[in-house]
Amino acid sequence: MPEVATDYYGLLGVEQGATDDQLKKAYRKLARELHPDVNPDPVAQEKFKRVTAAYEVLSDPQKRQVVDLGGDPLAPGGGGGQGSPFGQGFGGLGDIMDAFFGGGGARGPRSRSQQGADALIRIECDLAETAFGTQRELTIETAVLCGTCEGQGTAPGTLPTTCETCRGRGEVQQVQRSFLGQVMTTRTCPRCTGTGTVIEHPCTECRGDGRVRARRTLTVKVPAGVEDGMRIRLAGEGEIGPGGGPAGDLYVEVHERPHPVFTRDGDDLHCTVTLPMTAAALGTSLPLSTLDGEEQLDVPAGTQSEEVFTLRARGVPHLRGTGRGDLHVHLGVEVPTKLDDEQVELLRKLAALRGEERPGMVAKAGGGLFGRLRGGR
Predict the structure, then answer these.
(1) What is the per-residue pLDDT across 149-198, written as a single tens digit (0 to 9) for each?
(2) DSSP string covering 285-327
(3) What CATH number has the domain spanning 105-160+199-257?
(4) Residue 225 confidence (pLDDT) above 60
(5) For the whole prediction, is pTM greater than 0.70?
(6) What one-character DSSP code corresponds to residue 123?
(7) What number does CATH give the domain 1-102?
(8) Please, what's the b/e burial string for 110-119 (b: 16 or more CB within 10 A of its CB; e: otherwise)?
(9) Where are the domain boundaries for CATH 2.60.260.20 in the chain?
(10) Parallel, antiparallel, or unpaired for β 181-188 and 171-178?
(11) 109/193 Cα distance (integer angstroms)
(12) CATH number of 263-335
């Protein structure tokens, strides 16, 4: 059974389109009610962890994009690289607590290696490619692992040194005055940014980041039945993280080029064919181009304008499941606008034979509006 993504907006009580100020205001309000220094209730403390995790995710544009795509950046494999916000460890939420309350207890040094960001690329495909699937070679430019230091960020032959400010703990403590009195708080070390170590001799290739930007080529398979605007997720093909951290995901957004003949409605296709008045009256057989090649369409005598003929299973294959959509052919009847004398005379004779020389108007039943023209077919 698939996992259900966490409702981060619901945890903060805001709408999906909330601004950064609205997110911060909602988090401040909840944090002042639930912070362990204010509310010792274990249930409140657990809820405080949840809302803090939600704010940490939604205040990060990259993680928020994952949420808006229907994913969970903190779930295993969800692009956040920090696990569930409700399990052990609690991830990197200390920075959010620091921003409002100055810390939430000892957490120890954090890894210099961080999860990489997701990437997005757009491709254009023809209708036949989105209908039956295709394969593309893409050249993209992303952050990749530094080949000189292998992600360590240090110059060859050197190692990070212990931070003298926090002595390797990744955090410093201080006493602050608050509305509760004097409170001992723990903050991220400003010198090592919480890692507990300092790179004295950074790699000259990546300047200590552990990654560099480079172009690379990869293959993406576009599945049959994909629609315009859909995104294909390539796990682990996004940006390598700082310090050689795991890569984010690459999203390939498919854009379908307009087709000169067909318009698409889900998995169904529509096209319009215009027939001369005589062909519609007498009936005909005409060649029709479909995605599967040319076919014959039989038009019976007496076909009226705007009639629709449906060719079953001649549309786009279903993306999920088997079968295909249909092809709907809309017929239009073309009335001639220029006639020579002989053609006029022939039409007058036809009108006389059918009693249509002077068609009149009849009133609609139940009303005073004029209805259809009197006369048979």
Answers:
(1) 999 999 999 999 999 999 999 998 877 676 556 677 788 899 999 999 99
(2) EEEEEETTEEEEEEE-TTPPTT-EEEETT-SPBPSSSS-B--E
(3) 2.60.260.20
(4) yes
(5) no
(6) E
(7) 1.10.287.110
(8) bebbbbbbbb
(9) 105-160+199-257, 263-335
(10) antiparallel
(11) 9
(12) 2.60.260.20
